[in-house]
Design a protein that fits this description.
The protein has about 130 residues and is an alpha/beta fold. Helices cover about 40% and strands about 20% of the residues. It contains five helices and five strands; from the N terminus they run E-H-E-H-E-H-E-H-E-H. The model has no long low-confidence stretch (mean pLDDT about 90).
């Protein structure tokens, strides 16, 4: 079930973060982002993989650290299954070039820097 109303031509974004407050913040951020819509918000890497298979999002914004399958492993698996999906790792930790390269993600962003504009810029640079 979609988290926000989909608009024709909108970038379909899946959010994955184990913290409910941050998931809700991302859903609200995407609702305010012109041209983007949140198709689902999940709390684990495993749920993100399932949602990617079911919903075919254009972009996944995923927390680097989560219990179970973390964001790095999930990002790798998402890119292997769906190479066209733009994966964005997020964390409160400093972005790491090694983690970005190992995961195959398009970007690694500090959670404090997320905004509709930042996500739109990542999409503009990395869209298939």
């Amino acid at each position: 079930m979609p988290v926000t109303t989909e608009h024709p031509g909108a970038v379909r974004v899946l959010v994955a973060d184990d913290g409910e407050p941050f998931r809700a913040l991302l859903v609200d951020l995407l609702a305010a982002a012109p041209g983007m819509t949140c198709v689902a918000a999940v709390s684990s890497g495993e749920a993100a993989l399932d949602a990617v298979d079911r919903l075919a999002p254009d972009m996944v914004v995923i927390d680097k650290r989560m219990p179970g399958m973390g964001g790095l492993a999930a990002a790798r698996a998402i890119r292997e299954r769906q190479p066209a999906v733009v994966v964005v790792l997020v964390s409160l930790e400093a972005p790491e070039a090694e983690a970005l390269e190992a995961s195959g993600a398009a970007a690694f962003l500090d959670k404090r820097d997320l905004s509709p504009r930042v996500l739109a810029d990542v999409w503009a640079v990395h869209r298939p």
